[in-house]
Specification:
7 helices; 207 residues; four-stranded mixed beta sheet; alpha+beta
């Protein structure tokens, strides 16, 4: 089913992430309506499609990854000079004020585990007892929700149907509710809960 473009809902106030950026002022209600398969490593049909283009890494998490470069290089077996593209982009909406991107190797992110499933960075964090939020970028952890110009919204892959795991499972919001709580705090989640309920009631009356 195609989910039509929806009018953005204004939040009661701006909500800043724990890093100071991004700052969310509005929400696209499609995050309450679109669904996806949340249990990533239990998926047997996507073949890690969401990793095929690499991922944006904000400067704050880039610095964190590089502080662990020795350990991560040994753990993954991937030389650090192969990890990121050379380009750097300024973006005040991102932690640290900008981002780079992971390289793509053999059709997928360089950090995709080729001898199994999942991400080398995530596996490294779990193995070393490190909170994965410390090394994995905000954009990565929130996918398939994203943000732009203060709007919390579905990623393009979730709205255009190119993400193969859409259409089954909980909503984008429900799947990422705890990640949103981690980054933006309980007050944003409480407000999004209210908006989710209002959106469900509105759709029930319309339908």
């Amino acid at each position: 089913m195609t989910i039509p473009v929806a009018s953005a809902l204004d939040l009661s106030r701006p909500f800043s992430s724990r890093y100071g950026a991004p700052i969310i002022r509005r929400v696209d209600p499609r995050i309450f309506r679109l669904t996806y398969f949340t249990r990533c490593l239990a998926c047997d049909f996507c073949h890690d499609q969401c990793c095929e283009h690499g991922v944006d890494v904000d400067f704050l998490h880039l610095d964190a990854i590089l502080r662990h470069a020795d350990g991560l290089e040994t753990y993954s077996g991937i030389p650090r000079e192969r990890w990121f593209v050379q380009a750097r982009e300024t973006d005040e909406e991102l932690p640290g004020g900008g981002s780079t991107r992971t390289r793509v190797r053999n059709g997928a992110c360089v950090f995709l585990k080729r001898n199994g499933r999942g991400c080398w960075i995530h596996a490294y964090c779990l193995d070393r007892g490190i909170d994965y939020h410390e090394l994995k970028s905000l954009v990565d952890c929130l996918f398939p929700i994203t943000f732009a110009d203060g709007l919390l919204c579905p990623a393009d892959e979730a709205t255009d149907g190119s993400l193969v795991c859409t259409g089954v499972g909980p909503s984008l919001y429900r799947g990422l509710r705890e990640e949103l709580r981690y980054y933006f705090g309980p007050r944003l989640v409480a407000e999004l809960d209210r908006l989710e309920d209002a959106d469900a009631q509105h759709r029930a009356t319309v339908e």
